[in-house]
């Protein structure tokens, strides 16, 4: 999947992302989380959706992870990194990913999984033009726990 990060490490990171999303739900948040890893596979940033708790419509998990990674790395450029998200990023997050220079996105649940669990942000994609994102590779990771954060949020 990635030239520097083994599939086993990516799957372990995906487990961490799912656990982070579940923790956010347990704390009253939404089932979205993200991490950013460097080319060696080390986690340099984490984030959960904090839109409600921070009263900030931009505090999506991916953006929070970008903010955390940028602070930790002391740079606004995250070129060459990989973002792993519990849910497929919305258009806002894809734009922030591109601006940050993140080259690869791996998501666990796709936009249709989210919509089926009452998180419908399909409308945001009409604002994206595919040619703008030709340098960002986005791929869905297959994971047997992919819907667990949504299922816990519904209970």
What topology does this entry show?
Layout lengths: L6 H20 L6 E5 L5 E6 L2 H4 L6 H13 L8 E6 L3 H10 L3 E6 L1 H6 L20 E4 L7 H6 L2
Parallel strand pairs: 3-4, 4-5
Antiparallel strand pairs: 1-2, 1-3
General description of the model:
- This protein is an alpha/beta fold.
- Helices cover 38% and strands 17% of the residues.
- It contains six helices and five strands, in the order H-E-E-H-H-E-H-E-H-E-H.
- It has helices at residues 7-26, 51-54, 61-73, 91-100, 111-116, 148-153, and strands at 33-37, 43-48, 82-87, 104-109, 137-140.
- Strands 2-1-3-4-5 form a five-stranded mixed β-sheet.
- The radius of gyration is 14 Å and the shape is globular.
- The N and C termini lie far apart (34 Å).
- The mean pLDDT is 87.
Keywords:
6 helices; 155 residues; alpha/beta; five-stranded mixed beta sheet
- Please indicate the percent range of residues in DSSP E strands (runs of 2 or more): 15-25%
Summing up helix and strand content along with how strands pair, one would put the structural category as alpha/beta
Compute the CA-based radius of gyration.
Answer: 14 Å
Query: Would you identify the regions where 5 or more consecutive residues have pLDDT less than 50?
Result: none
What letter string, H or E per element, gives the SSE order? HEEHHEHEHEH
Instruction: Give the strand order of the largest sheet, numbering strands 1, 2, ... along the chain.
Output: 2-1-3-4-5
Summarize the structure.
The protein is an alpha/beta fold and 155 residues long. It is built from six helices and five strands.
